[in-house]
Amino acid sequence: MSGLRHTEPLDVHLIAVRNGAAGPEVLLSRRAGNVCAARLWHLPSGHLDGPHEDVVTALVRETREETGVLVDPALVRAAVTVHHRSPGGGSRVGFFFEVRHWSGTPQVMEPAVCDAMDWFPLDVLPQPMVAYCRAGLDAYRAEARMAVHFQEPGDPIAYDPAADRLVLVADRGTDRAAPEGAVRDFTERAVGRITGWTDVSWAREGSRVWRAHGAEGGTWYVKIHQNDRFHRREVRALRTWAPSLGAAAPRLVAADPKLRAVVLTAVPGRPLYGAVLSPERERAVFRRIGALARRIHQASPPRPAPAGPGPALAKADRHLAGARPQLAPEDEDFVRELVQQARSLPPLEWVETHGDFQLRNILHADANDGDEADDFIAVIDFERSEPGPAVRDLVRLSDAWAGRPGLYSAFLAGYGRTLTGAEEARLVIDAVLDAVSGISFGASHGDPELVERGRRTLARLRAEHHAHSVQAGGSRKRAEPGRPSTAGQQAPRPH
């Protein structure tokens, strides 16, 4: 022990944030005159006046003195605390506070020590900038609550990526927030230093996904697949046909088969799962989903289907055994009837398919001007991608348009064609088999939502199948082509 006690000064920093045209912006001032770090950009900041002043009161005072705006103490939000040491060896503790509401317009109030003040996008910060201030903003962007920034002798006062000393302190209960060391090293070799990790894994999946925040402001996604098969499928898709989707799919930055890890570019938008849209907007979105499905299925020339019943039919008995406790006797009879009929269907051509084309894997970004014609649609998660009939990608999506023929019509309008009779029949059969598979998996893995969705789909398709059988037996009238039962309409009975 050195015997010396820390007696660091305390300072406060204002992170004033507003919404800009390209995203959140932060207010910065440029130091000037006979001061340390002259000509460098910095947050409005200052020291406490003395023991009588708390950190929030000091922030409100410094904000008024430096920018002229008034801040209500009740609207001050704690952002991040940084323990900093300068290249000269002196240390201090900085309290960074977020403020999003104030009175007045920021302007230079102390021209002797500040010659400029402006707003900058949070992900495009200016240079040169005080390294201490940049560390606080990087920690803030990474959603950290505490950080250490101990510079070494000889380090520049200005931020230099080659001498970035920021270390984030993990929050309590965030042991799973970052991947293991080997994955972190792999990611940083691919894209540079990462200042923050956010676990965004889907609750029911075995694969893990993190959002990685780069020191220079970039964002990537890092995924660890639950098995080698999923890793190979996703990497194959991202290397071969997914690039034809352009901005509507992530780009593969790096892959490591030993770690089963991939680094992907970020794609704008939020999953459509759970989104609430107006009926007009929803139809417009489904037209775009149909157009995206068409691009996927046209990414490579179609090819003849291989011989055999296909994996879904081959697994039918196993999935039925797992789902049986959740099924009524007539459910199992219905499934076995469709499995038998499926063996007489003509084979469908195979194309590239996403394999898990459903709303939680489809991203939607609103147009800036609110024009639905400019809405952006993209797709993620290619670990179940493999060649198969095109209707494979309609099976899980069809739950979204069940009983809503307008959405199905909008999808087909974007897709550019109706389904053939064989495709309609195959879609019903595959939807039934997928429902049974979901019930089996959900029951064994404690996922009640998956079980309920499968039972709902199975009950609906069985009722529609029964209604069509009665109609066909009485009038011999076939349902209108192009409207499968997954759209809430009567479908041709498989034969």
TrEMBL record:
Question: Which positions fall inside the Nudix hydrolase domain?
Answer: 8-146
> Which residues constitute the signal peptide according to the record?
none
Matches recorded under CDD domains: NUDIX_Hydrolase (cd04683)
Q: Which Pfam families match?
A: APH, NUDIX
Q: Write down the superkingdom of origin.
A: Bacteria
Region Disordered: start and end of each range? 464-495
Gene3D superfamilies assigned to the protein according to its UniProt record, in alphabetical order: 3.90.1200.10, Nucleoside Triphosphate Pyrophosphohydrolase (3.90.79.10)
**Cited SUPFAM superfamilies:** Nudix (SSF55811), Protein kinase-like (PK-like) (SSF56112)
Q: Which InterPro entries match?
A: AGP_Transferase, Aminoglycoside_PTrfase, Kinase-like_dom_sf, NUDIX_hydrolase-like_dom_sf, NUDIX_hydrolase_dom
Annotated PANTHER family: AMINOGLYCOSIDE PHOSPHOTRANSFERASE-RELATED-RELATED
What is the protein name stated in its UniProt record? Phosphotransferase
